[in-house]
UniProtKB/TrEMBL annotation:
Protein name: Uncharacterized protein
Record-annotated Non-haem dioxygenase N-terminal domain positions: 49-163
Keyword presence, Metal-binding: yes
Sequence ranges assigned to domain Isopenicillin N synthase-like Fe(2+) 2OG dioxygenase in this UniProt record: 217-263
Annotated source species: Linum tenue
GO molecular function annotation: L-ascorbic acid binding; metal ion binding
Gene3D superfamilies assigned: B-lactam Antibiotic, Isopenicillin N Synthase, Chain
Length: 325
């Protein structure tokens, strides 16, 4: 069982509530919220995001007689390797439950500001209502609010956050969390098989892992699965972690919610031993305690994929000795 102290992984400075700022007539978004470094690209045509059917994957064998991946599992492998994310259909989580989560999230953001202040981020903590990765008074901010809390394991829940949420939201998140727990383990098992890893390497890190829930508000039914930094490291770089960014709409608000599935905090993170053995590959990333990894991650300003780069093992350059004169 993890020590609750392990969850003290970082902090974020308190900032103003964007939803409240947006209620007042403004001619332009305040300069601190303008992000010229994150201008959206001009896509000339829509991209075809990979679509994975989970029921097809679960109902068929995954290897042919020669040991090669069958098309369904190969499609998952390619999506993780080449894209870093995919759309998941027939995932088994009911539309009615997803609609309940959406309605409760909207209800939470529509609470009076006096109620939301009860869930404000506390000094020295990351969880709560506010923004993430705010480490200085000068840095740029996102034009949006978030609420971030630990769901699993239950003993790591902050007593002033999850247990004090409105009862309908809390009950809905309990049901949603259980559904996502089973779904995430199914997906991780399939990824392990595609990577030719022992499934035990996934289970030892994720079966009793850390599940967080984040809801986002941005002013004016399939799941999207993102490959995160921990899976890039665990797969020794075979699967690619990608950045997720939301573009605000000038006419209407936008709400989203995400569940983060992370390794258990008292585990070790690095390339899976069975993957290195089965592929005879050299490790491309360092091995580090999971809690130490997240402490480093949360204490930095969010800047692209810079932190996963810190984990890379750089090649050693050997300078040939000069011939003796």
């Amino acid at each position: 069982m993890e020590d609750p102290e392990l969850t003290k992984l970082g902090s974020s400075l308190q900032v103003a509530c964007v939803q409240e700022l947006a209620k007042n007539p403004i001619a332009a978004i305040p300069p601190r919220y303008l992000r010229p470094d994150q201008e959206p690209t001009n896509a000339t045509s829509p991209l075809s995001i990979p679509v994975i059917d989970l029921q097809k994957l679960l109902s068929t064998s995954h290897h042919d007689d020669d040991g090669d991946l069958k098309p369904e599992l190969d499609s998952l492998h390619a999506a993780c390797r080449d894209w870093g994310f995919f759309q998941l259909m027939n995932h088994g989580v009911s539309e009615s439950l997803i609609d309940k989560v959406k309605a409760e999230v909207e209800g939470f953001f529509n609470l009076p500001i006096e109620e939301k202040r009860k869930y404000w981020q506390r000094p020295g903590e990351m969880e709560g209502f506010g923004q993430a990765f705010v480490v200085s008074e000068e840095q740029k901010l996102d034009w949006g609010d978030l609420f971030y809390t630990t769901i699993l394991p239950k003993h790591l829940r902050k007593p002033h956050l999850f247990p004090r949420l409105p009862l309908p939201l809390r009950e809905t998140l309990e049901e949603y969390s259980a559904a996502l727990k089973g779904l995430s383990m199914n997906i991780l098992d399939l990824m392990a098989e595609a990577l030719r890893m022992d499934t035990g390497d996934m289970k030892v890190l994720f079966d009793e892992g850390w599940q967080k829930f984040r809801m986002n508000y941005y002013p004016p039914y399939a799941f999207i699965i993102n490959i995160g930094d921990t899976l890039e490291i665990l797969s020794n770089g075979m699967y690619k972690s990608v950045e997720h960014r939301a573009t605000v709409n000038s006419d209407k608000e936008r709400i989203s919610f995400a569940t983060f599935v992370s390794p258990k905090l008292d585990g070790d993170l690095g390339p899976a031993p069975s993957l290195l053995t089965n592929t005879q590959a050299q490790p491309k990333y360092r091995r580090i305690g999971v809690a130490d990894y997240f402490k480093g991650y949360f204490r930095r300003e969010l800047a692209g994929k810079s932190y996963v780069d810190v984990m890379r093992i750089l090649p050693t350059l050997i300078t040939p000795k000069a011939d003796p004169a």
